Amino acid sequence: MVGGDKEMVERCRPVFETSAKSIFHVGPLGAGMTAKLAHQVIICLNVLAAREGMALAAKAGLDLTMMQEVVRAGGAQSRVADNWIKNKPTPNASRLWYKDLMLALEFAAELGIALPATVLAQELIEPIDAEEYR
């Protein structure tokens, strides 16, 4: 996700390709960060949904491998749920998500929009010292 002058982005594409499989020119300078924050909001909300659904299934005694298949075939399909057993979120991921959600919420406030599910997601992520990110 890259923002900036289109010609400059194309000129730099070979450099970007050394560290990324996909490069998306998403708009003017700063748009790359906006796209990253929006993407992180979506990931975090998906993680929380998968975590709660899988916790419910596990507590009820369902086989989580089968549950992944059910979710994959149904309307709740997501990459997060598809890979839940082998890729459960780590504390480091939680720290990154907390920081990114804080930045997304600050940006949303600047834009004058409410993101109530994002507020809840940040509250549910392992609490850490928010001052560490300022």
Describe this structure in words.
The chain has about 130 residues and is mainly α. Helix content is about 65%, strand content about 5%. It has helices at about 5-15, 30-60, 65-75, 80, 90-110, 115-125, and strands spanning about 1-5, 25. The protein has a two-stranded parallel ribbon with strand order 1-2. Helix 2 (about 30-60) packs across helix 6 and helix 5 (about 90-110) runs antiparallel to helix 6 (about 115-125). The longest helix has 29 residues, at about 30-60. The protein is globular and about 55 Å long. The relative contact order is 0.12. Mean pLDDT is about 90; it is low at about 130-134.
Tally the helices: what do you get? 6
Main sheet: strands, sense, barrel: 2 strands, parallel
Strand order in the largest sheet: 1-2
Q: List unreliable stretches of 5+ residues.
A: 128-134
Question: What's the helical proportion of residues?
Answer: 55-70%
Mean pLDDT: 88
SSE run: EHEHHHHH
Q: What class, by secondary structure content?
A: mainly alpha
Shape estimate: globular
Count the strands?
2
Q: Report the sheet-strand fraction.
A: under 5%
Radius of gyration from the alpha-carbon trace, in angstroms: 18 Å
Separation, N- and C-terminal Cα atoms: 24 Å
Q: In a nutshell, what does this entry contain?
A:
With 134 residues, the protein is mostly helical.
